[in-house]
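Observation: inputs received (chain + glutathione).
Thought: call the complex predictor directly.
Action: predict_structure
Action Input:
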Amino acid sequence: MRLLLSPTSPFARKVHAVLLEKGLPFETVYLTPADATVSAANPLGKIPALLRDDDSALYDSALYDSAVIVQYLEAIAPTPAVFPADPLARIEVLRWEALCDGVCDATVLRMVEGRRVSEKQEPKWIAHQEGKMRAGLVAIEAELGGRTYAVGGAFSLADIAIVMTVGYVTLRAPELLAPHDALVRWAATHAERPSLAMTAPPAA
Ligand SMILES: N[C@@H](CCC(=O)N[C@@H](CS)C(=O)NCC(=O)O)C(=O)O
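Observation:
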């Protein structure tokens, strides 16, 4: 399998970490979303995409988005699992993933707007995205409470998603984490896990 990714993409980090957790054989292909290989694999032109080994045609065989790729990996390599067996606990993990993906989506949108020349930036749009980031971080910290793992007392995709989110906000908007010492400490502990340490984004 080949994973199309960039070093800073949080969504790619999620998939990369799951591949490492499962010990699956794969290659990494680092590129930007603008690369033609990405649009050939994913008509939406987004990273990550996964090129499976069973491909005869590149377009037909590529998988996206990160949540779909994670489900695929869990299906082909159920052990070690990144989802709990209990269906209702699985829903909780999926909700954590949605929450964390949403914070990362808002962080990407804020960053893209912030990179436009200052006269063209829309402060209301930036504030709107920041509002989602702040609310998401508050929810993540509050719901984690004093737990070691987000769901069911065991490591899961929810923990990967939280570390991914804290790592990406640290890269793009560290000031928004100032009120969240407890969350930052929680993430730092889990970020030492090999799959997460090996996929950490570069420093800003
Ligand atoms: N929901 C998608 C989001 C992927 C995404 O937004 N990737 C960004 C990089 S972090 C990207 O490729 N952006 C390029 C674009 O939107 O054109 C997923 O989970 O895979």
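Thought: report the result.
Final Answer: The chain has a mean pLDDT of 95. The chain has two domains: 2-76, 87-193.
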